[in-house]
Amino acid sequence: MSGSIFRRSDGVWLNEPERWTAQGDSLQIVTNKATDFWRETHYGFTRDSGHFLGFPTAEAFTAELRVQGDFQALYDQAGIMVRIGANHWVKAGIEFSDGRAMLASVLTDGQSDWATAPYEHDAGDFWVRATVANGVLRLQVSADGKLWPLVRLAPFPKASSYLVGPMACTPERAGLKVAFSSFRLIAPLGKDLHDLG
Fold first, then answer.
1. CATH top-level class for 5-186?
2. Judging by beta carbons within 10 Å of its beta carbon (0-12, 13-18, 19+), is residue 44 exposed, middle or buried?
3. Domain boundaries, the chain
4. Rounded Cα distance, 67 and 77, in Å
């Protein structure tokens, strides 16, 4: 299941963007205005308007994705999402915050949290990987698609299946262009926690 996954008929849009194209193994989108995924914490509001193309998974899986985007405005973001429903999901990738592109992940279990860290590589071109197995979520990010340091390890609800795929939002504007490619959805890798491959 690689190469032309964006041509598969089982991908389901949540908040399909007005402008998108899929060609070969590449999906290109342009974000709509004021799109976001967030639940309650700190701000008190709930947003479920971000763009997400979800593909159904088994109860355990590894998904990885290359993301290329020009992050410029506050909260511009793109990466990968794993979703059970409106109350249980994670998004991870690059988000523009505090004047720069940051590594960011939001884990939502009824309410959202938000973790950020400086990203020392080219934020306009990166890979992100999510592995879910046995009630555990593992997030990794790569600058080259070869070396995969750990970003986050967290409990995640067990389910018979999930939706996983590319995600992008622009809470403060419209018009972020993002290209997603090299999307793989496979059995969980099962590698040691500190195996960077």
1. mainly beta
2. exposed
3. 5-186
4. 10
Q: Exposed/middle/buried for 100, CB within 10 Å: 0-12, 13-18, 19+?
A: exposed
Q: How far apart are CA 147 and CA 163, in angstroms?
A: 25
The reply to whether the predicted model has a pTM over 0.85 is yes
Q: Are 70 and 81 contacting, i.e. CB atoms less than 8 angstroms apart? A: no
- Residue 194's contacts (CB-CB under 8 Å, 6 or more residues apart) are 150
Q: Evaluate whether 65 touches 166 at the Cβ level (below 8 Å).
A: yes
Q: What is the phi-psi region of residue 146: left when phi exceeds 0, alpha when psi lies from -120 to 50, beta otherwise?
A: alpha
- pLDDT by residue for the chain (197 residues), tens only, comes to 345 677 778 899 999 999 999 988 899 999 999 999 999 987 888 999 999 999 999 999 999 999 999 999 999 999 999 999 999 999 999 999 999 999 999 999 999 999 999 999 999 999 999 999 999 999 999 999 999 999 999 999 999 999 999 999 999 999 999 999 999 999 998 888 788 88
Q: Name the nearest CA neighbour of 137 among 115, 117, 120, 121.
A: 115
Residue closest to 58 by CA, chosen among 114, 147, 131? 131
CA dist., res. 23 & res. 166, Å (int): 15
Cα 63 to Cα 102: distance, rounded to the nearest angstrom: 21
Q: How far apart are CA 76 and CA 104, in angstroms?
A: 11
